[in-house]
Write a structure and sequence with these properties.
mainly beta; SH3 type barrels; 1 helix; about 40% strand
Length: about 60
């Protein structure tokens, strides 16, 4: 993922599934200086700081 898209997701009212190491996460805050994102695991509520480039948007949600 790139910084601009992560910012769009955080600012959006829509729910966008984002994966970190194949696990769904909620984006909470971006540090543009270090290009990292504070995320929360949807499965276990664990909070982490991860590189933006390691996040993947799941574009298959809602598509059949």
């Amino acid at each position: 993922m790139i910084l601009r898209r992560a910012t769009e997701i955080i600012q959006s009212n829509d729910t966008v599934e984002v994966l970190y190491q194949n696990e769904p996460v909620w984006l909470e805050n971006i540090d543009s200086r270090t290009e990292t994102v504070y995320v929360r695991s949807i499965d276990n509520d664990k909070r982490m700081v991860v590189p933006i480039v390691e996040l993947v948007e799941n574009e298959n949600i809602g598509r059949h």
